[in-house]
Amino acid sequence: MHELSIAISLVEAAEEELEKLGPVEVLAIHLELGCLAGVVRDSLEFSYEIACQNTPLAGSRLLIEELPVLIDCLVCKEPREIASLQDFHCAVCGSIGGKVVQGRELRVVALEVNEIKTNDNGVACP
Q1: pTM, two decimal places
Q2: Do strands 70-72 and 61-67 pair parallel, antiparallel, or not at all (unpaired)?
């Protein structure tokens, strides 16, 4: 299950970013996931919860935006969604193929945080 290693990498990358941000609470990681990325969404979400245990990200959410597959349609002359994952024809004109221009992504697009207020000594305030 390579989704666990992906989830661990997401958590590690977020932890590195937290060092730069200072005292914050992580609410969510926003992720773009292409249909051709080879990642099972449910497995990634489950693995994320496991990877977050005993880290500053514990309790945060993984918010995934699934991206459709787009091809550079040779007839329409612009990016178009495919008919289905089993049928790489342009969903608009029906022409065959073209270069895949979207759908392989696995990209963190945002880290949603809540600033933790601290006193002059750097101690968190209620």
Answers
A1: 0.84
A2: unpaired
